[in-house]
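dumping the sequnces here before i forget
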Amino acid sequence: MNQTIETILNHRSIRQFKEVPVTEEQLDTILAAAQQASTSSYMMAYTIIGVTDEHKKTELAEITGQGYVKKNGHLLVFCADLYRHTLNASPEQYEQMLSNLENSEHFLVSAIDAALAAQNAAVAAESMGLGICYIGSIRNQLDKVDEILHLPKHVIPLFGMVIGVPAHTPDQKPRLPKAAVYFENEYKHDHEAELEAFDQTIAEYYQSRKTNTRNDSWTDQMLRRFTNPMRMDVTGIVKKKGFNKQ
Amino acid sequence: MNQTIETILNHRSIRQFKEVPVTEEQLDTILAAAQQASTSSYMMAYTIIGVTDEHKKTELAEITGQGYVKKNGHLLVFCADLYRHTLNASPEQYEQMLSNLENSEHFLVSAIDAALAAQNAAVAAESMGLGICYIGSIRNQLDKVDEILHLPKHVIPLFGMVIGVPAHTPDQKPRLPKAAVYFENEYKHDHEAELEAFDQTIAEYYQSRKTNTRNDSWTDQMLRRFTNPMRMDVTGIVKKKGFNKQ
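..and the predicted 3d for all of it:
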């Protein structure tokens, strides 16, 4: 197994960091890695905001409810960005661009471009001995995050990422069996048996892990999560920012 | 620079492959890497379909207009998947889940989950000396791809990925300068100067590269691309499949 595969397979989300900032050199490497990811039709439809201002970090920690959004080596926010592509457009050209700027195709393109860049950043950081955690909970108050970062139209925050020197080594969380996420040639509609096997694995995992033991299964957890409507305001905010409207 | 960073920074999209299939062992490693990516709230909201059937590969190559979708070491299609989460739900529970299944939040979650997994797969493959290329053009006819792969409701194809032993070494395409994609604390609305500098870089790149030289700049290329409405049907197909409806 090579060093890269080892790094990837060793991933766990890190939520406690030593009080050591990510160095300029590390950050440059992480950003270069992010930028080298594939991008749809050369659009590079994302922006990364590094948040260092203590007041902004405090506000973001409150929005996410996660203390490590304030206490970390560095905080990045990954945004979908189609604004840059409009910068050189005349008013007439901008009008003509709107169908693309506002359709689901380019909402997908920009979200996927941002995610590919982010995962390169994550793997690069981990290969240097740093730990990371994605922060989806910035979408708890997407409009407020949008304001804090002064984002123009056609730019929306998607998720954050905290990076730093790990101060703990959490257990690795099991993944669904390969047989439940990988199919050959066509989707296997009936894969309850694979989920059942995983529920057993997960029940054992929750019982045996070092901290925060509980009785739970994956399918129960998902049922609870999905039956409780979450972040219903994201739809409207995304549209208000000019994405996903037509 | 460690091996992982080197692998990531050396990325180029590979579109010509030797006639050597990806081995079972390589594929298992690539899939394990994909699965170890971070996932929003443990949802693992994606499915990967490996396409080996020659007839299906031919159909997908026609849809994408890209011969290497047929000729490669292995072809993967990454899908957003919220179907799995409904498998154990009663009809009443399913009704209750619909708000989440259909909102933009979970459209984003599943697209991002799939992209994070895909980029881990890409880096893992490249670390083993394989080459990859993302295939966004499966969205040329999303409904047909959906049919070919027999996807249920709440599953949509997002993009493909071809993997194999590289038969060429294309030039690396320049990326936007860091100053155009990374900002500290807030978005820099006026970054035309950074784009102008990049346009110069790109004009030189297109003139100097080994094959397919042309006169072009990045901003011109983007203006052309965005003023021509593309894949406007994706919006409707995504909704028909139960995503992004409310």
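The domain at 3-170 of chain B is CATH 3.40.109.10 (NADH Oxidase).
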